[in-house]
Amino acid sequence: xxxxxxxxxxxxxxxTPSRGWFxxxxxxxxxxxxxxxxAIAALGLDHLRVFPLWPLFQPNRTLIRPRALEQLAALVDxxxxxxxxxxxxxxxxxxxxxxxxxxWTTSWxxxxxxxxxxxxxxxxAYLETLGRALAGRANFLGLTVGNxxxxxxxxxxPDPDRISPARAADWLTGLLAxxxxxxxxxxxxxxxxxxxxYQDDHPxxxxxxxxxxxxxxxxxxxxxxxxxxxxxxxxxxxxHAAYLVELAKAWAQDPHRPVWLQEVxxxxxxxxxxxxxxxTRATVAAALDCPDLWGITWWCSHDVDRALADFPELxxxxxxxxxxxxxxxxxxxLAEAVAEARQDWRPPGPRRTAxxxxxxxxxxxxxxxxxxGAFFEAFMRLAADGARPTVLxxxxxxxxxxxxxxxxxxxxxxxxxx
Length: 418
What we know:
single chain, TIM Barrel
């Protein structure tokens, strides 16, 4: 699936079923799904990201349930009837503080998710099978290897599967190839949470995100210390998503590689409910000012039903819609922002001011890029002053053709701003 530089970005939502959350796969009923999809389509969005639960779809290493695949296909078809494209995540993996791993990877069968040959072969077979089941559907966008699977690879996970950066690259390359075998030519990618960009010595690196797969995915959450440190209305908070988009570009080999803002949301209490609409509008506007943005996929479609126990408090209220399909202020703000962007879309111009990031390719010490880090704060000072900064690796400062390809005409260092 090709991407055209300068194309209007896509606008979508991460689909959280209103009835039963992701446990709806246990007693799948298409009627409430259709009601959810009607409400999503009414917001003017054009795609969904959906999450089959891995243990339910592949409960045994050599069993991928045909009925589960049929139910997923039925959801994709129902979305297509409403003009919605669908991206499907594979290895779920991790969702809203809960881990969902098949029994054949845990306890008595404990095996490393990333390095055990039998486990990796089964993962590849599963992703290839998902792709084959959906490849004939025009509204199927492609597969994401899994949702923030990098969180299983190190701290702060309570029981991590340790891996080296080289083995992480091998794992990602192999599973992306399986996605391509199952559904050739679709938009296949992988997605890490922000430890890949912010956490020192994390085995999944920025280069993995920016070079493997069809597009680069970033997940922007201001509960990571941004809103707490700088305040909910600060430039750092409303620019956080745009910052991650630009930070990801620094490691890309293609100067116009598209970046997908695959998760972004307005978490309470870090963003007060009464400020959700303003935060949504400001975050979307900042992201749309980033060249080569593939799209924005908001987290999430529906609130979590409070009848379900043990979620972190903020997870219950992240939806654009309530469980009874009422549009919330954030949902209205997103719908308005989408309509405005489509009405008069003009691709943003190059970000001509580049802040130099002096990190080697493996980027072992990434905390300078995290909230509170010197690089993060320098970027946000530029953004607050209206400079529209981007990020440039120090090793590329002396590459005139690379600078020209990105439209960079001014280079600034962190030292210049201190």
